[in-house]
Structures are given as structure tokens and as C-alpha cells.
Amino acid sequence: MTSLAAGPSTRRRRVSTLAWRGLTYLALVLIMAPAAWLLIGVLGRAWSHWKWSVLWTQLTPEGGGLRDQILGTLILMVGVFIIAGTIGVLAGIHLAEFALPHKASGKLSGPLRTASDILSGFPSIVLGYVGYVALVVGLHWGFSLLSALIILSIMVIPYIAKTTENSLRQVPTGYREGAEALGMSAAYGLRKVVLKSALPGIVTGLLLALAIACGETAPLIYTAGFSNTLPHQLTHAQFPYLTYVVFQYYNDPSVQKHYLSYDAALILVVIVLLLLVASRIVVSRTQRHSESARGTQRRRPGRPGPTAALAEPNLEVPTV
Amino acid sequence: MTSVGGVAGRVPATPHAESMGKPSAPRRVLDFFRRNEEHAWRGSAWIAVVLPLAALAFAVSVLAVKAWPAVRVNGWYFLYGRNWTYGSGYGAVVHTDGVAHPMGAQFGAWAIIWGTIASSLIAIVIAVPLSIGAAFALTERLPGWISRPLGFTIEILAGIPSVVIGLWGILTFGPWLAHHVYPIIADHMPDVPVLQYFRNPVGGGEGLMSAGIVLALMIVPIIASTTRDLFQQVPPLPKEGASALGMTDWEVANKVTLPWVRSGIIGATVLGLGRALGETIAVAMIGGAVLHIPPTAYLPFTTVAATILTQLDGALTDGTGFAVATLAELALVLAVISVGVNLLARLIINRTSRTGAPVGGA
Q1: Could you identify which of A198, A209, A239, A243 might form a hypothetical disulfide with A167, taking C-beta atoms 3.0 to 4.6 angstroms apart as the criterion?
Q2: Cβ contacts of A172 on chain B, cutoff 8 Å
Q3: B161 at the A interface (CB within 8 A)?
Q4: Contact flag A125-B278 (C-beta cutoff 8 Å)
Q5: What digits encode the pLDDT tens for the residues B297-310?
Q6: pTM, two decimal places
Q7: Could you give the CA distance from residue A17 to residue A179 in angstroms, rounded to a whole number?
């Protein structure tokens, strides 16, 4: 019995365990510290000179406020919600309900899905350039709301389709069979049973798509241009939005414009946070409801929330 | 695998419609709608799925058509050349293969393509180990009440607009790195072939290294949240068994957990790579927009995406339109790279997920 208890090997193993744990914590800290610094930094930069009047005064060449830029970003979000929401949800329904599974492997990987994934990984600047060539110049729309809306929508449609598809997939097969057994037509069952129970997931996907849309800059510079005030036309008028202010004013000679840039960054972060929190609330409310009503499986501790999908746009997690 | 699609035959929508005699007009409209509702769903859903793909095909063909003159004149030089000049802006127009361009215009994009690859590689090298380590800490070590808010913070990071990250990077983070971190690295880097690239001078915080680090921060959420989800799918029994055999935490992680989900992590990494390759605005702000390969890793550079953004104004001054066509060629290169990376990710995920678990055969 030589040195089974506390030999050098055991000590080395203990040290290696501690070192490994330490490294994982270090990795976590190295991610968390910049993230926290970023959020606090954006808040701090804007807070020291924050004036609430930024929210309701117009942008002027000397400074002023960001009223029309905020409204412009909100209008873009509403437009994307309508256009991309409709098309994206319908596309998700097609992928989950109507597209036939692959014959040989039983996997659902048709050419439509592959193409949709390619589109979701397509660089936004390239889409913006195409919008510039085809819509702004080709159709003579000029920098305008309409060209920006179309390009932004094309950008987020694959994302909405993906989240819709995933949440439709999670509707238990029993619901569909039950609807069928009750004599509902397939379409009626889809509308009244399947879509209804997938709605929270779909809404979450829409909210996160809006978060993506409101933070885009590069394709908008190519399609919307920029203006100080809100135009009254869909085409032939440059359109204001917040991200441009952040991008363009931070190295302006005027200090007033620096402040506007920081303010715009803060407002953008607040909008995104509101959307993320809203999506959390949608999910947690419906989950509590479903747990008490149907007694489905409880949430595992530390299970990823719905917003995990935001970071993971088009990865099909392999089933091991 | 059970059948996933919910469509199972066509059950008559209104079974009692025939027994009601002659229905009123609104009734007939309603019946017509009910009878054809499924067709309406199917039709509109099909249109919805095809429409964006038609847009994709349209986008690619617009790029190809627009870039064609530039592809012909620039030739292969575009991919390896290092000289990027718009040529004489004062009238002298020459024709090559029937394509008009200013005299002296020469477009070699190697420095730009190099910058794209280098910054993305830096981002991946930093982001992957950090993400895996953080995912381990979140799933294996920390209790739920602390790992859940931390996980939510990572998800917030994913949602922060890239322009805001760029603003913070150029005003706060980049200068801090240049003053406090880069000098330490640069002073201690040995003078051997690859590593000497990381020696002095360190510049002012605008450049390749800062852009790479910020890109890493932007793709960490993609990789970390996927990795975390994957770790949670690893069944506890093999891990507990390994622990019971006396493996250390590191051995359990290295020999059981990681092999179990390796393909998923590789897939997520490649997707993160795709995001880093295509990121525009943050790199345009932090990178410094210089069309050369930087002499050291800390100095200004540019990427394909950032060049498309920052060079448009300059390109529009070219009356022959040749510079704009060259930007289209650049966009085409970026599109090809990112589509290739995306397909690669899908290939990895599809192929390895079919072969099943690598350890013990689940």
C-alpha cells in the first residue's frame, strides 16, 4: 500500500481539477466583464448630460433632439413587423406543416430550408448593396423608407420563419390528432389549435426579429439614406433612424453631436432591452399557464430561455 | 421519428352544409372560404417561403450582372493584387475589353480579403475557448439562480446593436486595450516568424486586434448559448459514471462531455465565423479603414464588408461606374465566402449528427 492516499499523482489531479474550474470561471468573467462594461459604459456616457427634451425636439444642424429619428426607427420596426412578420410566419408554417420530410433519411432538409438558412447567414451589407443597386438606383426610388423596409424585411424573414417553424414543431402531435379526431379540417385545426398553442413562440421570434431590425445600420445607410426630419412619402425621400446618428455623429467636430450619438446609443439599448424583457414575459407567462393547466414537464433549472435563439439564428441542434 | 407534419387528409370542413337547403349569400361566401381554407393556407405559405428565396436569387444575379465588367477587367489580380487606386479622376478614360474605366484604375483586393480573414480568425481563436469555458461554468458548476441571470446577460449581448458595440469599442474599449493590454503583449512577444507580427508598435486602439476582440465579443453569444444548450443535452449518467471512476472534472469534460457535443460546437463556431466575416459597422468604426495589410497586428486595416460601406462615396465619384462595379465584385466575394461557410456548417452538423454519439454509442 504505497502512497495510494496522497501521492504526487493525487495532488496533481486535485490541482488539475482546481485549475480547470478556475479556467472556466475565468472564461465566464472574461465574457461578463466586457458585457457589463459595455452596458454601463453606454449608460454612463449618455447619463452625464442626458436631457429628456432629446425625446421630443427635432434634430437641427446644430444639435437639437432625436424625435424624428426615434419615430423613424419605430416606423421601420412596425413596417418590418407587418411585412416580415406576415411572410416569415407563413414561411415557417410552410416549413413545419406543409413541406414534406426528406424521403430517404426522414430528415427535414429540403432545398427550401437550405436556401432559407443561406439567406439568414447572408451578410447584411451585401443585401444593402443589392437594395442600393436594384431599388434606390434601378427603380429610381431614391434613398427611401420603402427600399429600407424591403431590405430589412428580407433580412429578418428567415429568422422569423425559423423561430415559427421551431415553435410549431414543439406543438405535441396529440393536439393535431385530437383536432383531427374532433372532425376539424386540417386548416381549421391549424388555425384554431396548432397556431394558437405555438403563438407564444412565434411572438417571441417576432420580438427578437424586431430587436435585430432596429439595430441594423449598414444596409440602412445604403437604402434609407438619412435626414433630419421625418418625410411624408414612401419613396424619393431620405428617412431618419437612430443607428445612423450613433455611427456618424460620434466623431463630429461638434460636442453637441457627440452627445446626440451617445443618447441615440442609449435609446437603442433601451429599445432592445424592452423587446428582450417582453419576450421573456411572454414565455414565462405562457409557461406558468401551461404548467398549471396541463401539467406538462417542469422547466429544468438553468434551461435556456427563448432568447437563446437570438444568439443562435439557424443552427439545428443535432440529436445525439 | 414520428410524423411531424400535421396535415392528415382532407376532412370536409362543413359536414352539414348539404342538409341546409339553399344557403344565404354570406353563408355561401363563408362556406366557400371554409372549403378552400386549406388551399389558401397552403398557397400563401408556399408563396411566403418562395418569395424571400426569389429575393436571394435576385440579389445574387444583380450582384453578378453588376460585377461582371469589373470581373473581366480586374481578372485574377483582384484576388491577389495589393494595389487599390481609383485612377485619374480628370477625364482620361480608357477601355479594356470594351469596359470603360479611368486611366490608372487598379483594384487588387488582397489586403481587404486578408483583413477579413485575419480579423475573423482572431475573433474565433478568442471566442471559442471563452465560450466553451463559460458554458461549462454555467451548466456544470453554478446553481440556477446565478447562471440564469448570467445567461440572460449573454443573450442581451447578442441583442445589442453592433453600432453601439462599435461606439463603445472605438471610444472606450480600444483605447483602454492600447494603453493597458497591448503594450504588455507586444513587449513580451518573442521575435520569431509568426509571433513577431504581434510586437510593437501598438497604435492607438483602432485596428486589426481591437476589431478582432470586439468581433469575438459579438460572436461569443452565438457560440456560448449553443454550447450551453448542447451541454444540457448530454445525459448525466455518463458524466457521473466517469466521475465515479475517478476522473477529474477536466477529464470528464475532455473525454465525455466535449466529444459528445463536438459536432454541434463546430457547427456553432462556423456560424459565428460567418457572422464575423459579414459584420460591417463595428469593424468600419474600430478597424480604421486603411486599405493595406497593417505592419503589426494592432494597426488600422479593413475588411470586405467595411470597405463596401466606407468606399461607396468614393466609388460614386468615378464617372465611368467602374468603381461601383468593383464594389459589386467585392460584395460578390463576400457573398461567396459567407454562403460557403454557412453550407460548411450545415454539412458538419448534418453529417456528424447522423453518425450518432461518439462515446459509447448512446
Answers
A1: A198
A2: none
A3: yes
A4: yes
A5: 899 999 999 999 98
A6: 0.85
A7: 54
